[in-house]
């Protein structure tokens, strides 16, 4: 029999061989950080904030009112970016998001203002119709085998034309007002409009933490009344999307469906169902955006949502998602939305021409795609 000492030496040799096994390759902390999808967005956010602190730091951009302004704009981008992010990770695109926003808002306005339906019923009907259209998008992509780019591009035009036609048919105009008055007293409308934590913000104003109005009808009230519901929705959707993607089996299915759908099917992933559900969720996010706008502005317009689909995609790309699918991060998309909101409002506060925002969109999209291509090659070892 082997002595205890010999057994210990043999065990140590085996463990040493296992540790040195080249199959157990160690990845450095720097490399792990480099392949995180959020890295580029985080660096971009730091640069954007640093730039506007220098050029617009004394303009009121970082005062409570200024922060509220770019936070609301960022929340708008974030709501639609979350849906676009999950869909792109699943390997598909939806170019009908912008038209869906206009369609959802007009449906609420027509049903409530023109037909006299309660606001809450109009909102629910709008959700059902839009999520159903999202399912149709997904079904057509799956059954026809056509690229989602083509199918949803067709729906971009179909929905936009249908929205304008319905608006003119029922009201002879493309803007329908009167929603705000009908929303007063409705039980569901406050979920999409108004603010929360009013008492907290009033207390912050009373103790001098927040500035208050010194005259007028809002004398003594804080300049920031509370947290807008639009921001609340953005936070809820970001948390939901992140948890779904990183903490659930369905999140693994999303990654698998976008990474290699054939291999995913072989291991039992319901790829078709995953993709259709992601189209439906994207439509849900667009409807949330639309209804928040309608309740806040008190009106609906047939041309709302123009180019929002591209802005959502750019947010997702900035956040590190690959255009080929199978890789990305909801947190990264949210940071991309924050960058957009800060830049859009920063140009205003710095006195720059607002049209430069479109220039920024193009430049940042090109830079993000180049960076994502480099990251993909790092991950896959592709030359």
3D architecture notes:
The protein has 383 residues and is mainly α. It has a single domain (37-380), classed as ABC transporter involved in vitamin B12 uptake, BtuC (Orthogonal Bundle), CATH 1.10.3470. Helix content is 70%, strand content 3%. The chain contains 16 helices and four strands. It has helices spanning 4-19, 29-34, 39-56, 64-89, 97-114, 119-144, 148-171, 179-183, 198-206, 229-247, 249-259, 261-266, 271-297, 308-318, 330-349, 356-380; strands at 175-177, 195-196, 227-228, 299-301. The chain is globular. Residues 1-5 have low confidence and may be disordered.
Helices and strands in order:
Blueprint: H1 4-19, H2 29-34, H3 39-56, H4 64-89, H5 97-114, H6 119-144, H7 148-171, E1 175-177, H8 179-183, E2 195-196, H9 198-206, E3 227-228, H10 229-247, H11 249-259, H12 261-266, H13 271-297, E4 299-301, H14 308-318, H15 330-349, H16 356-380
Antiparallel strand pairs: 1-4, 2-3
